[in-house]
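Appendix B, Record 12. Input sequence as logged:
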Amino acid sequence: MPEVPILMPQLGESIAEATIIRLAVSVGDTVETDQEIIEVETNKATMGVTTLCSGVMKEIYATEAQSYAVGSVLGLLEATQEEVERTGVSVAGSEEEKDRALAEGAGVREDEANLHFKTEDGGVFERRVVEPNVKGLPVPAGKKGSLYISPRMRARMDELGLQAADISAIPGTGRGGRVTVEDLESFLEYIDTWPSSPASPMRLAVADAMRRSWMRPLASVGHPVVLDHVLDYRRQQSPKPGLTLYVLRAFAIALREEPTAAGFLMGDRIVHPRAFDIGVAVQVNDGVMVPIVRHTDTKSVPELAEEYALLVDQARNRRLGESELKGGIATVTNFGTFGLTWGTPIPLPNESLILGVSAGVKRPVWSEQVNAFIPVTEAELVLTFDHRVIDGGDAGRLLKRVAELLAKPSEL
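Logged structural output:
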């Protein structure tokens, strides 16, 4: 009977590999068309690999906790000739071709060998076990480090998957305090017996994004905002939209009025946003995901509520696709949900702005109307920005405008 290869699909434009986290079927199981048989994790989300036709699972090459490149053969599905003709799927070559492909991989373990074999239409399938391409060594911060990295040191770091930030804790014994290969090897031996745990793809993706973000000159400014108007207004709504939605909407309007603030520098040009699509940071297991809420400047808070709730739910379940994560111009993060009263969030590498909201705190504020201190609920708005694009004064005016808009929640 024809054998249909189960391939690691292209799960997103920038996704080159994925890690197997669950095998939902076993050899010998009968499966239907479009049935999810393997659950995989990329550095952005958890997704499923589905079948292209019905049949019986003949082979499963994939192993849980292993990473596989896009296009790798994860298993073989035995289907009838009628099913193959009905769906138009490609079938695998002969057993001799597969055995010869494994034999050509001599020198590596068979379970890690590249498995490639010709299809009936002349194409080539390939099964590859790969290591995640974003790596890092967690080390404590230190004062000594190296501004110059020698070619020999760079080659060794590339072998280990290390970045310049990863060696900042290592005291250098080279000229001018430079970290040498010997220093690195000595440090690795020193920490070899320390407790450790593997970093998840999500954690590594966050680390990589923050490294790239920090290549820019970032600055943060804060502005207090009285939340009583928003809180009183939302109590009258049914259902009650979350505070983050009001901040998101006010931020979008303020950016629409001053779009340059959300631009990004490219050479000698500041590229302005073409749409006011703003992300919302959502805490997930071992990381943060930022789904994008589209056209936030044209939708009222009630109109945004359903879309926002769906995106947050998908993010927490790691079910966001590439389209829900791309194209944002800025991000809103409500770190006040953790009881924090101050923070300096870092924008994503492709964005110039991130607006943080702290927890509300009761404070006495002087009122000219009653000539006395009155209690109000006040929070801090904190804007971190690319200082190449805007200056502190522009950032302050943007924050002030957001605070003004929050004072009129019925207009949001």
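The first strand starts at residue 3 and ends at 7.
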